[in-house]
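Example 9 (inverse folding). The structure is encoded as follows.
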């Protein structure tokens, strides 16, 4: 099977799997991450096939929608890639990327390293910040029926992975617990540059939000 056919099959599979997904983790999220990954990959020496497949499969079964089970996504991805007769070494690399891409409170130490992981992780993190990041954050907060903001509940930094996964904090807190931290966690020069502007946009949004909250604007 050539790469074009493999990518086409993967896109079809992911669209089917995520047909009823929450709006911030649906096919369009995957598509944006895929485009981000291709953009970053142009500036790096990497295995493009691994980047493409990992970007497409990275959120095939996000643990937050499966009772925190982080094994489901990698298993679904492995089973699919095996069904496509992809070689085991490439499959293992893609599964390792999926297992190590998540933020997990910012304290998770990656157990696997590769330029392909760096690229896909940056692509995913770029979709978590800026205008799209803001929209996704409030979409998920609404999905979980969380408060927009509560001045009495301060953001909690340096959470453990379990604390981060079980948090029920207001949506605004997520900016401080994750989104505003991502700019300095980008791996590649391309992503670092893009993240600067998206970070500034979030800071501007927060300033406007607080002003409106207090009735100042």
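The amino acid assigned to each position is listed next.
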């Amino acid at each position: 099977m050539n790469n074009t056919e493999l990518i086409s099959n993967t896109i079809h599979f992911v669209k089917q799997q995520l047909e009823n997904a929450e709006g911030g983790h649906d096919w369009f999220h995957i598509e944006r991450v895929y485009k981000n990954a291709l953009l970053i990959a142009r500036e790096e020496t990497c295995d493009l096939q691994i980047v493409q497949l990992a970007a497409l499969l990275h959120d095939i079964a996000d643990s937050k929608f499966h009772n925190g089970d982080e094994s489901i996504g990698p298993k679904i991805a492995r089973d699919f890639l095996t069904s496509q007769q992809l070689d085991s070494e490439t499959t293992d690399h893609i599964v390792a990327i999926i297992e190590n891409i998540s933020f997990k409170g910012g304290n998770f130490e990656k157990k696997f390293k590769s330029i392909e992981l760096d690229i896909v992780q940056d692509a995913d993190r770029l979709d978590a910040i800026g205008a799209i990041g803001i929209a996704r954050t409030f979409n998920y907060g609404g999905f979980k029926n969380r408060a927009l903001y509560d001045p009495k509940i301060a953001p909690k930094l340096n959470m453990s992975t379990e604390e981060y996964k079980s948090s029920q904090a207001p949506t605004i807190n997520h900016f401080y617990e994750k989104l505003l931290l991502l700019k300095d966690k980008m791996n590649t020069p391309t992503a670092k540059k893009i993240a600067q502007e998206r970070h500034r946009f979030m800071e501007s949004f927060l300033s406007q939000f607080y002003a409106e909250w207090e009735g100042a604007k």
